[in-house]
Specification:
It is built from seven helices and ten strands. With about 200 residues, it is an alpha/beta fold. The strands form two sheets. The protein has an eight-stranded parallel barrel. It comes from Sphaerochaeta pleomorpha (strain ATCC BAA-1885 / DSM 22778 / Grapes).
């Protein structure tokens, strides 16, 4: 079963949808973005979220102390780094926290991925750009990834099964592909989770 993360949730209605469709992960965006939410709102959303669903905090070049506070409060249980965070930063973060860390890699060519294969992060997330843009990349490039990864970038219910079959990700990550009119849509969320959980294409760990 391929795992799935629904990213960019922005309120209690989105949480209600997530509780019904039961993804493996949800993403709370704390970085500056149209999907950004406050720590206070995120805490309320976490409290309303089913306990078995893992909440992931999305950050861009954030202070480590800020991330630690959100983990220690129970708001998030996983960290996604979407900026210029280097190996030194990730090592420092992991010294402070015991939760898994995801490092996002913007894929433009084979060479853009190679330096990250030895990253101290627990997972890589392969994306086409800064996230939530709806743009995809050449999925064949993901085949050189020798470690568990999240696949993102322009995924939706129409291309998700093919993406999983082509790349064999640990998990898929959707945001804009779950939206209609800029808001999360229950039917799209339901379709995506159903497709991902039907696909048994897990990469070897």
């Amino acid at each position: 079963m391929t795992k799935i993360k629904l990213c960019g949730l922005r309120g209690l209605q989105d949480i209600a949808y997530a509780n019904k469709v039961n993804p493996d992960f949800v993403g709370f965006v704390f970085a500056k973005s149209k999907r950004q939410i406050s720590p206070q709102l995120a805490m309320g959303m976490r409290l309303a979220l089913h306990k078995e669903i893992v909440s992931v905090g999305v950050f861009v070049n954030e202070q480590i102390a800020t991330i630690c506070a959100l983990v220690e409060s129970g708001t998030i249980a996983m960290v996604q780094l979407h900026g210029d965070e280097n190996e030194q930063y990730i090592h420092a973060l992991k010294r402070e926290l015991s939760v898994p860390v995801i490092k996002v890699v913007s894929i433009t060519c084979k060479e853009s991925l190679l330096p990250y294969l030895s990253s101290p992060a627990d997972y890589l997330l392969l994306d086409a750009g800064k996230g939530g843009t709806g743009m995809s990349f050449d999925w064949s490039l993901a085949q050189i990834c020798t470690r568990p990864f999240f696949l993102a970038g322009g995924l939706n219910s129409e291309n998700l099964q093919k993406a999983i079959a082509t790349t064999h990700p640990f998990a898929v990550d959707l945001s804009s592909g779950l939206e209609k009119g800029g808001r999360k849509d229950f039917s799209l969320m339901q379709q995506a989770v159903s497709i991902a959980h039907r696909c048994n294409y897990l990469s070897p760990s």
